[in-house]
Design brief:
By secondary structure, the chain is an alpha/beta fold. It is built from 17 helices and 18 strands. It has an eleven-stranded mixed β-sheet with strand order 6-3-7-8-9-10-11-15-14-13-12, with helices on both faces. The N and C termini lie far apart (57 Å).
Length: 501
C-alpha cells in the first residue's frame, strides 16, 4: 500500500509551519518549556528552574557539562534507574554511544519524549525529500535501515540499553512496521557478518524505496554483495547517510548510484538527540531541528573548558565560526557539551556543517588539521575511496609525515598523494607553512589497502557493525597496528603515491 499521499498532505502542512518559524523565538520557547517540565527534578531543584524566565537566566544558572560530570553528579548513584533525576519520570532506554575504535562508549538517557522527537525528525527527512521531488512515491515500499549489531540489554525491569539503531528498531510504531526493514529479530542479530548474509537473503530489494546507514558500512554491504544501489534496489529514491563526514565517500557513492534515480540525504542523528538534516543538496549545510525538543548553544571552540566561556545561541551566533555544539534536550541533558564542532552556514533557517571534534586534530608540528579539512582533502585528491585513517610517523631524519591508510575499491588513482598534499595546503595556511621546503613536515605517505581491509580490522578490534566508526585520526599505537596488518602493495603507477613500504 502506497501511503505517500498521506505523507504529502502532512508535508504540505509541515513545510508551511517551518516557513513561519522565527529561530530565536522558537528556541527560547523550547528552552523554557523544557525548564518548566523538569522544574521538579533533582537537577531542576539544584539549578533554580522555578525562577528561570529567559535564556540569559538559564545560562547564568546552568553551567556547561560533559558526560563525565553528569555521570558523577547525577546518574552514577541511581544508575540504571534514572527517575526524576535530570528528567521527570523514569528513563526507559539508555543509548550506548558509538564512539570510535579508540574511544569508550557512554550511556545517555532516552526518554519517551526523545523517542517521539526522533520519529518527528525522521518524518522531516521524508518531508524535505517530497519538497525536492514532488512526484516521489517514497512510501510505496519499505525503508531498509542498515543499523548496528547490538541488541538491547535489560539492565533492570523496564530499563534497556543499546545503540541508537537498536533502539530505533525496537521502537518502530506498529503502523510503520510494514514500511520498515529489517524486522527487530533480524535487525538485532549480534553477529554482524551473519546478519549481513541474512539481510541479503531477506531484503525485499525490488520494493525498497530508501536505504539508511553510515556511509562506510553501506559501502561494505554493497561491495560484499558485488552490486550497486541501482542494480540491487531498482526503485530506490533516496540514500540517507550520517554519522561521519560524507566528502571522502561522495565519489564512490556517485559511482554506485549511477544509472538510478536516487538522491543522497545527510542526517545528523546523535545518540543525544536528532540535531539536523538535509533540506537541500550536498554541501549546503544541514537544517537544525529547532522546534523538536532541543535547545542549541554554540560556544567558540577555543573557549570550551575556560572559566567563563561565551555562550551563544541562535539569536547571537554567526556563520563561519567554529563552535562547540552544546545541547539541552527533552531527555534530561542540560547544556551538555556534545563534543562536535560545527560551523553555521545560514541563520534563517539555521543550517550547519560539522567541522570536527573537540580536541581531536592532526597536529604534529602545528598544522592543526581538523577532521573536516582531512575529509575535504581526501575527496579533492580524486578517485573513489571506501574508507581511510591517518596518523603521524617520524622519518629517519626526524621530520614527521602524515601517513594515510586508504582503502580503494579499485586501482590507486594516479597522483593521489600529490593532489592530497596540494589540497591540504590549499585548505590550511598552517599546513602550507609547515610543508614549505619539507623542513618541518614531509610530504604525506600513501598506504593503499585492498577492499575489505577496514572491515576486517574493525572485526579484529571487536568493533564490527553499522553503528561503529573507523577513526579518522589514528594515534601512534593505532597507526602502527594498521600498518602492521596492511599488505605490502605492488608498486603504484607513476605519481600515484609514495613508494611501497
Amino acid at each position: 500500500m502506497d501511503i505517500t499521499p498521506l505523507l504529502r498532505a502532512y508535508a504540505n502542512i509541515r513545510l508551511a509551519a517551518l516557513a513561519r518559524l522565527d529561530p530565536a523565538e522558537v528556541q527560547a520557547r523550547t528552552l523554557l518549556a523544557l525548564v518548566r517540565r523538569a522544574r521538579h527534578t533533582r537537577f531542576g531543584r539544584d539549578h533554580g528552574f522555578e525562577r528561570i524566565r529567559s535564556v540569559a537566566e538559564y545560562q547564568a544558572m546552568v553551567p556547561l557539562r560533559r558526560h563525565a560530570e553528569f555521570w558523577r553528579d547525577y546518574w552514577q548513584a541511581p544508575f540504571p534507574r534514572l527517575e526524576d533525576v535530570t528528567w521527570p519520570g523514569t528513563i526507559p532506554l539508555l543509548a550506548q554511544t558509538s564512539g570510535t575504535a579508540s574511544g569508550s562508549s557512554k550511556s545517555v538517557p532516552v526518554s519517551a519524549a526523545m523517542l517521539a522527537a526522533n520519529r518527528r525528525a525522521a518524518l522531516d527527512v521524508l518531508v524535505h525529500h517530497l519538497a525536492r521531488r514532488p512526484r516521489s512515491r517514497v512510501l510505496a515500499g519499505p525503508t531498509f535501515m542498515l543499523g548496528g549489531s547490538t541488541a538491547l540489554e535489560t539492565l533492570a525491569p523496564g530499563i534497556r540499553r543499546g545503540d541508537l539503531s537498536a533502539i530505533a528498531a525496537c521502537t518502530v510504531p506498529a503502523w510503520a512496521r510494514p514500511w520498515s526493514f529489517p524486522p527487530p529479530e533480524l535487525a538485532l542479530d549480534t553477529d554482524w557478518e551473519r546478519k549481513i548474509a541474512r539481510l541479503a537473503k531477506a531484503v525485499p530489494a525490488g520494493r525498497v524505496r530508501a536505504v539508511a546507514g553510515t556511509p562506510g558500512w553501506l559501502l561494505a554491504f554493497l561491495e560484499r554483495l558485488g552490486g550497486s544501489f541501482a542494480a540491487m534496489f531498482p526503485r530506490l529514491e533516496m540514500v540517507v547517510h550520517g554519522g561521519v563526514g560524507f566528502a571522502p565517500y561522495r565519489a564512490r557513492f556517485g559511482a554506485l548510484m549511477a544509472g538510478g534515480g536516487a538522491e543522497t540525504a545527510e542526517v545528523y542523528p546523535a545518540s543525544e538527540g536528532f540535531v539536523a538534516l538535509a533540506d537541500g543538496g550536498d554541501g549546503e549545510g544541514l537544517r537544525m531541528q529547532i522546534d523538536n525538543g532541543l535547545f542549541f548553544e554554540l560556544v567558540p571552540a577555543a573557549e570550551v573548558g575556560s572559566p567563563a566561556p561565551t555562550r551563544h545561541w541562535l539569536a547571537t551566533a554567526q556563520p563561519g565560526i567554529d563552535y562547540a555544539l552544546v545541547l539541552t534536550t527533552c531527555a534530561g541533558l542540560w547544556s551538555y557539551v556534545l563534543g562536535d564542532t560545527v560551523r553555521l552556514t545560514g541563520l534563517k533557517p539555521p543550517r550547519l556543517l560539522v567541522s570536527g571534534r573537540l580536541g581531536i586534530m592532526l597536529n604534529a608540528v602545528g598544522e592543526h588539521l581538523s577532521g573536516q579539512q582531512l575529509d575535504d582533502a581526501v575527496a579533492a585528491a580524486g578517485g573513489q575511496v571506501s574508507d581511510y585513517a591517518v596518523g603521524v610517523r617520524f622519518a629517519e631524519t626526524g621530520v614527521p609525515r602524515h601517513v594515510f591508510v586508504v582503502e580503494f575499491p579499485g586501482p590507486i588513482p594516479v597522483d593521489f598523494s600529490t593532489r592530497l598534499d596540494a589540497a591540504l595546503a590549499a585548505g590550511s595556511l598552517d599546513y602550507r607553512e609547515r610543508r614549505a621546503g619539507s623542513v618541518a613536515l614531509a610530504a604525506p605517505e600513501l598506504v593503499p589497502v585492498p577492499p575489505g581491509f577496514f572491515a576486517a580490522w574493525m572485526k579484529r578490534r571487536g568493533r564490527l557493525g553499522g553503528q561503529n566508526k573507523v577513526p579518522r585520526i589514528a594515534d601512534g599505537a593505532m597507526l602502527e597496528e594498521l600498518l602492521a596488518t596492511a599488505p605490502t602493495p605492488p608498486p603504484p603507477p607513476a605519481g600515484a603515491g609514495s613508494p611501497p613500504r
